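[job 0412] stage=fold_complex status=start
inputs:
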Amino acid sequence: MSSRMLPNLGIGIGLRPPHYDDIFRLQPNIDWFEIISENFMAVGGKPLENLDRILERYPVVQHGVSLAIGSPAPLNFDYLQKLKDLTRRTKTPWVSDHLCWGHLPGAHYHDLLPLPYTRDVIDYVAERARIVQDFLELPFALENLSSYVAFTQDQMTEWEFYSAVVEQADIHMMLDVNNIYVSSRNHGFDPKTYYQNIPMERVLQIHLAGHSDYGDYVLDTHDHPVRNEVWDLYAEIYPLTGGVSTLLEWDDNLLSFEQTWAEALKAKEFQKGIHKQDSLSSSFNNVKKAGVK
Amino acid sequence: MNHQSYCQTADLPPLHLQKTQEWFATIITNKMGKNDTIQRYSPHGTLIAEEASKYIVPGPKLRSHQRMQIYNQQYWWRLLKNLHSNFPLVTRLFGTRAFNEKIGVPYLLHYPPHHWSLNVMGENMSEWISEFYKERDKSLVLNATHLDRAFLTSFIVSRHPAPNLAIMAKNDPEGLLSMQLYLQPDVALFSWEYDLFTFRKNFLKQGVDHWVEHRFPKLPKGKSFYFVLYRNINNNMAWREIKKEEFILLERFKNGTNIKDACAFLEKQDAAIYEYAASNLQKWLQEWTQAGWLTSEVS
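[job 0412] stage=fold_complex status=done
writing structure:
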């Protein structure tokens, strides 16, 4: 299933409550917003009123954080029905969540936890992803994680695992470029190898975000501007996708709406290849100097 | 395909995956050690450095258990941050560090999250404080917990349709009198010996740790206070102080009653309450209707 038939919505930002006043007042000419689905599921009141006001003017895409598709518990169809109900309201062109696990029967960890990269886990997750897409009746994409561990059971690389899941399930990729960079630093791989070995035609959307560099490891914090190394990766990846919707995520130490939007709009310059920088190679040199293989 | 047939086709998880996830969950939910580092011993009683290396390969710079520490920290920090957000007054009463130690961590150990929605995480906080919090300021902390929780609930809850009482009064007055009415789910009632609403408003003007170093704002006291919290016609959070008589009557609608029974209830109250409430009942019903506080549907 190619993502090339899906619309390129342009450049968007994550919809966050502190920005509502500015958005309603300024009515900015922004291409689209991404919402965290769970913030609008099983709620009414002010959150839904705000969403409806946004929907009057802007395309909205749903991105989830709680599906936890690789969890050992059965798929939660009550959750999925609420997700589907929301898609009817938002008219989202696709739905995405993460290639992760996050709950056990009776417990929810509210984190995007990594999976072991094994053949039988691919089978398990791909089957569930196929069901989710079928049930939602919309294109469904899984996002690559920022990860901080690798398992002794692993039989393959992350990009082999990710590619196999989406191809076997016949779903799409929500490619987080910052996550590729963060994981490359934490695991010591070349991000170029990652994106050169995934089925780019399945990428339906790109995420960009900032991270925090603690020296010994890099954390996906969504509280900084996008680093130059990540912009450079984006500039290399974007043309390979054929041009897909791009979104800036910013979740902590929030900037004003206008500053966030300005940060997102930088993506346009990298799409045109204007911001030619050499920071990717210099970053690799720094990583090598720091002893990362 | 219906839900059941989907469930039948979904495979069971590989056993090694399930075992790894169970181990992973045990480690990340374990209480953090000194300076938010991972505990030296796992909950299974073995050195975490040895145990983690069976499941996790070392990274370029971090050993296996150091890598797990990142998830251990993220789990606790994320959940505590959510509690800070859902209980802004309670958090400020303590400051971040004391809140985490005295309330947040023990609460989450007792009631670990079980639902995908972060809004559900604090649903048992009042019960936990009632049962386990033993300090002298328990009453204030408990009332602050009720109030914070009510603000969250009122903000996100869906309203039921509101009957048009004015039209009913015109077309079917007898039906109106016997119609069972309830408070909308966004409406909450409070009675205290102090004005916690004003106190909360002043408290929330400052950052979470401001009050650790400063005198608390004055807690207005000296009489019994009655309040109603609700969403106004613009769907914004609002509250107002009400009379004791109005509070008593609204409490009847909380559990559901009709106007006829409400009047009968008033007749049993002492003379002062009865006279005041009876002379204001019509006006109150109009105000409550305009504010959309009443519904004929059970929550």
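[job 0412] summary: The first strand of chain A starts at residue 11 and ends at 14.
[job 0412] exit 0
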